[in-house]
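Handoff note, outgoing to incoming analyst
You'll be picking up this chain. Sequence as last confirmed:
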Amino acid sequence: MALVILGLGNDLLGDDGIGLLVADACEGRFARDVAVRRSVRSGLYLIDELQGFDDAIVVDSVIGDRPGTVRELPAEAMPAVGVPSAHYAGLPEALAIARSVGLRVPTRLRILAVEMDAAQTIGAGPRPEVTASVPELLARIERTAHDWGYGVRDA
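Most recent structure output, in case you need it:
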């Protein structure tokens, strides 16, 4: 068994970098069967980050009304959809394509998203109300990893 914790985002776009910050905070908190990765890419590139793992916890941002609010997005609620081009593929499409060609990608998936508003400041880090979500995200990630049978080190 192997778990990947994947932090997504863009550290040049303010609050959108929260997934990368959470990945940084996860370093050293888990046993060897847990990999921590970061990516500024999306779409089909996510296959590279997820391939070879049995389970995945993905952390990203999502536009919402209450910046800093942590939401869990059920993977089954995000089915792959027909997209006009590979340029529009997201996580559900990437996983569906990988599975269709027989690649080993996670069967268990937990998606944690932090709400941000639509306005982004180029070159700024996440705002305090968004970075305040990091402890809650870490607790959820650790609880999920533990529940799935992965080792969590004392912080």
